[in-house]
## 1
Amino acid sequence: MPWAALGPEGEERLAGLGVSVRCLVAADGSVPGSEDQPGNVAVLARAC
């Protein structure tokens, strides 16, 4: 999910549903230089 669409507020809402951000990556799959870098993608998952 695009991090810009989720952000910290969305991350809190998802946590209430048992879903968390597992990884934040740059659009090309590399490690982002900063949390607010354009194009960052949040990898979401639910615990089993």
## 2
Amino acid sequence: MARQRLTIGTFGDINTRQTPTGRYEARTRYRDWDGHARLVQATGATANAAKRALKAKLADRDLFQPADTALTPDSLFKDLVTYWLEDIDLEDRISRTTRNLYERNMRTLVSPSFDNLALREIGVARCDKFIKQLAKLSYSRAKQARVVLRLALELAVRHEVLPRNPMDHVARLHREPHVPNALTAPEVNVIRAAIAHWESAANHISGPKPDGQLGAIIEVMLGTSARIGEVLAIRRRDIDITSAVPSIRLAGTIVSRNGELTFRQDHPKTAKSTRVVALPTFTADAVRRRLAKVGSLGLDGLLFQSRDGTPLTTANVRRQLRQVLEGAGINGVTPHMFRRTVATAVNTNASIELAAELLGHTDTRVTVMHYIQRSELVNPATAALLDRAFKKDEE
């Protein structure tokens, strides 16, 4: 008689027999994950009891365990986290900064609530409640937790430790509509004046005098819409101020990680963010003044740098800008606000497509949602149009 062909995770006919001790034994062949069919058996006081014991034993076998991991549905979530981080390092597809951010968000936001749960205990209801509770405290934290929890559980699904990802059915996050804030031209000039007064060292008491970099950094951000990290990563080779139309190539960013020296990364936030931007007159003038001040500068020398020649950190520039402006009674201004200000000005005077191109966006929806300050003023042409449509008959 030919042996029954089994697929992985299935068993054949169950045979029972009474043992010399009077108990009953049920046995069958079960095909494990590795493809080998093995004999599995269990005993009971009766034939039916033996069959029930055998089926319970088969149900507990690790159907989803792949050959290259010790994880099972009964493994703790913290073991999955370790395995997930190791997998990220093995793939080496995301930046070290993003990898560290994922680990931080996992350890601080998710792990405290999930570490001691077995993977099989993590279902849709538990995940949904966790995300909603976190969202009450902070939309941003809930969003970050959702990302890393989904990624870790997705790895468990891909490696067949779990049959499905519960995060696929968690309710979407909702937040109040966000209105991007941008500066007006008069506000920009007030900021310029405050920085110029500080850089003049009129009230300087002790320590190194301002070196003029902060004002130039602001002018470059206003003239290029670049992120602060992109501005601080500009090298001499990226600058062309001799052509009829001066320009800057934005092709890097500054990265600071815990325990590491700040360095220039050889691409912006995304590969598609690399772009060459024509400079308005005020930015070109600021760049020329900066180049004249630094004197001889190698092609890979940074336009903005510390007194030791090392890259400036984005955190230090943000802190310096905040301190200078708060000293002048101006609050709430961040480097990213200049990026939104530029986007809003270009959209108002040209088009959303041109604003997106300048910002390095491939999708105008991102520009509209996060960078364009909506104007309350409706085009006054509607008044003339309605006059024509509903003009009163002359009495």
## 3
Amino acid sequence: MSSPGSGMLSGFTKLCKGLAVILIGGHVVVQLLPTSVTYLALIPARTIPFGWNLITAGYIEQSVHGVVVSTLGLLFMGKLLEPIWGSKEFLKFIFIVNFLTSVCVFITAIALYYLTMQEKYLYMPLSGFHGVLAGFLVGIKQIVPDQELYLLKIKVKWLPSLMLLLSIAISFFTPESATYLPTLIFGTYIGWIYLRYLQRKPESKLRGDPSEDFAFSTFFPEFLRPIIDPIASIFHRMLCGKSEASSNPQGYTLEGAPLLGSDPIEASRRRERGARALEERLAAEKLAAGRDSEEPHIDGNDHV
């Protein structure tokens, strides 16, 4: 007999389970061998020659609560994203967001050192999967933006913004904010850059999501968008040339050539698939819970 709530705890993909094992295994390693943090975490002063820590740091959780949050976040968000993106694209997203986030965090730490001349920015061990989790939130915002969270009574599209706002607020009261805040900020931004301009859809040979609903300004309240849009357009021109996505229904352009995959129709279809997949999963979980509650209890004294 399956237990109540088993529907919620089932359906995790093999890839997500494997990555969860890596996160848990990395945490166990640094607990048993504390010196391994020197080689696996991102320590800016030692990244050269230990360049591999730009990759390994994202999979090393140094605290118990960190590995719990990262593992659960990976399993539950991956349960929604991987079936829609595909396993190959899901893994590619994790690798790219993790690596580029580490590069940005490394550059930021070096810049902070030269600005403050405090060596703590060079030698603090930075690691954790939270940068990728921030990117996952952006992916969920893209797929099911108008889905409302039952407990929080807010739409999914606001999750990345609220997460960053809460993290920034907490950073004023925690001295170790430098160990997580840059990672969350860059994880969110790199995730958006990848999904907005680079993600390729194998079934349609398309790339990116140029829809207005996924513009950078949608991370901010409505009254700030007239200020954010001109700033965001600078980065848009850097990535897509001088043309405006809104004036080119066929997609973005790069040095005058159309970028494959920036079709607004495809972006709309992607969100529809995401909403449909979420609805089907929720319906399946409710059905499983209903079956569990209706299943008769068999007592040892019952007889024919």
